[in-house]
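Illustration 12: Ferritin-like domain-containing protein.
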Amino acid sequence: MTELPPPTLDDATRNRAELALCGLMAYRELTAFERLSSDARFSPTIIDRVALARLAVHEFGHYERVVEVITARGAEPADSMEPFVASIDALHDRTRPGDWYESLMKAHVIDSVSGDFYVAISRGLDPDIRRLVQEVQALDEQNKWLHERLQEALQEDPRLASRLALWGRRLLGEALTQARRIAESGLFNDALITPDGEEPLSVLFSELVENHSRRMAALGLTA
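Figure caption equivalent — predicted structure in token form:
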């Protein structure tokens, strides 16, 4: 996306959007920790189990970092997270993986789409929040491991390809549905940056889909 100047927001609007984004990130990181910790138990090897457990620890560290920011701004973390609890919990209820490989694909897709969403929202906010998003979404190592482990699984059993491609499409649909509901809540509308004349949500979702398609293509899967 072409770099555009951030919108001019009054202090109250900006603070509300920034705390909402922090609350969203905090609860998603908390649930990611819980999910990865649980999925690690079903890993096919000890090495895989250790790798997923390590990723879970990173997610919890991100949760604690965001909570520090919320608290430093004089807000209650639980209050900031509450608006997103039902939506995120419902997403996980609707996308229960059938096996360990589906759980890897879920982590890869949901984490990546969520990260793209945070980055898009943060473009219209203050630099300190953009830096926090970059810090929390510093997932190069995590995404690299998930990508390589999925590639390895697909090479070992090519029959996984059609199932994981279908699962990836379902995950994308669920992630986009959740992102749309959150975006349409009105919490972030003023923060979205788009070229003049373009509808903010259309631009946002085009970006999310394009990034997802590129990631799936890198796995040799059809998005």
